Amino acid sequence: MKDKIFGVLQRVGRSFMLPIAILPVAGLLLGLGSSFTNTTTIETYGLQWLLGDKTILHALLVIMNAVGSAIFDNLPLIFAVGVAIGMAKKEKEVSALSAVIAYFVMNVSINAMLKIFGKILADGSIAKDVLDGTITSVCGIQSLQMGVFGGIIVGLGVAALHNRFYKIELPSALSFFGGTRFVPIISTVVYLFVGILMYFIWPTVQNGIYALGGVVTGTGYFGTLLFGIIKRALIPFGLHHVFYMPFWQTAVGGTMEVAGHMVEGGQNIFFAQLADSANIAHFSADATRYFSGEFIFMIFGLPGAALAMYKCAKPEKKKQAGSLLLSATLACMFTGITEPLEFSFLFVAPALFAVQVVLAGSAYMIAHILNIAVGLTFSGGLLDFFLFGILQGNAKTSWLLVIPVGIVYFLLYYFIFSFLIKKFDFKTPGREDDDTETKLYTKADVNERKAAKDVKNSDEKAGSVADELSQTISRGLGGKANISDVDCCATRLRITVIDPEKVNDALLKSTGASGVVHKGQGVQIIYGPRVTVIKSDLEDYLASVTEEHFEDDAAENNTADADEVKKENAASATDSKTEDSSTASDKAQDSDVESEPTSTVIISSPMTGIAADLSTAPDEAFAGKMMGDGAVVTPEEGVVVAPEDGTVLFVFDTKHALGFTTDSGIGMIIHVGIDTVKLEGKGFDVQVEAGCHVNKGDVLMKLDLDYLKANAPSVTTPVICTELKDNQKIRLITDGPIKAGEPLYAVDTYEK
Question: Does the domain spanning 597-749 belong to CATH 2.70.70.10?
Fold first, then answer.
């Protein structure tokens, strides 16, 4: 259980890294923009001619400042998307879109509740009894001030929904909404109610956060020491991001009014003050205490530890150890990335890491005591020190104090590490046994043995764990080596293969496909609306098995030579034709001997044009009735209407087709044109939405026929019934000119 919890928390911590990664860039833009547009700075250094108002550089810097501010102002949304992507197992782009939708839905729901309960007045103003700072504008929506927590709540929740439902299979009538399409739907529904709940819950949470921030602040310098110790101690577990982020980005790290606005979180307060630096005498050390101390041990302290490890290295290994330690030290000093150094002694000498934790924690406290207020974007390296310390001036940041304190820390690290390494003979870089390679260890080394044990077991289990359906599809396509691209539309798995001759149609049909269509190197496998789930499973399978499994698949698929595969495909095609011919003959015979149908449903034409039997469709899949039976209409007017009273089930993303069910229970697809999915919605103007009820003759969509005729292989439109029962048959009524609303075909039902 403990390992599982740690695993989840590690994933959460890693998911934070994606949105955090933008902060250095945003901070750089904001830092440069704010620093070099500051009137005092410009006048102090006599740079009016270069950076003064109305100069090109001034305009550019103003834009840079605005862009940096925009990123920090919208961090909650950025975190919502970033965390959702980081926590999603597969189909990450779907989780990102769902997170954006859920974020807006949640805040709109909160906004509605605030209005209902009178917290936001009719004129948009905030009621007088509302505590200042508790309501703010979120992407133009007045909502509760949830800060980055709001984004994290959305990101984690959407990721959980995504991982649970992205492969869901719904009943046939709703199958189009299954798989990845279900994720934004369920996210919308869930976060509508989350928004309602947040109205009642978050004020209490908000008060608790403020209280916690007050406790932390109230502990003074000891609280800062404790913060620093805990943060560094969590490095080996990868959980430090989980710990420090609330202090940086939420009210846990304190609140302060800056330029007339209430700002939450230590880092946010610093950058708000930076943006208003002309009116700030000295940046708040209470806000920067969560990171100012990092400059002391990252620029000075840890390099001292590196020098100690170099000095303690064996003479014959000093050169090799020196080059390794130098690169790690430079990374630490310039970028603030400490892991290469910390991990090198953490795993060979945990006692040294304990020393590092205590010294680093004390550095945070000392910086707080000395009123050092140097900000940062990501970590305490020289770049951030220059931008947010030196450039801002000692009067605002007290950056000069970092140097003498840093020198003391350099000496402390050097002598303590040297003593302990020699006293206990720690095997730091360069002190390894003669038969051991000199290297900088990483966390990966710690897990290497466990991973090695798992590899064999995972390889042995790969075949059994792998989806059998996906495995068969892979073999039918000629194996992994023959698959170039995997995609799908509403009903077809679209595969690009390298060698079409290796595709085994019979094997693919055995997976439940109603047909296989070849177009050059493209292979279309007809599965119906459940295809999105099949696509996801196939991608998972291809990503989960080793190259050896892929080779085995290909080998098994090609036990017979290519000629045999060709013969099998030809036989399959012949059998299909024979079956179709036999079926047609049977139907002809049945028509003579069968009794009258027990019921009949008339389906009218959805457009004006030329009606014909479905077998005339210029597409093998439709003509072969792989997706259902019906008829085709070649339109002469650019209007598609409801064929009967019924409900729109879905509209394809590319607008070229829609699902429809009549009030009498007949499920249909109206697919305008052939291969029109490639037009990506151009030429289509859909007038309805999924779920709406329409009457016969109501306009469903308008078409730009000239554009469609010029850009699509054909505008001939299949009008098909997708879920006919065994005792139901299609009977064409009109073959030739037809007007919208006139009978097209009948659905006859016979006794079983």
Answer: yes
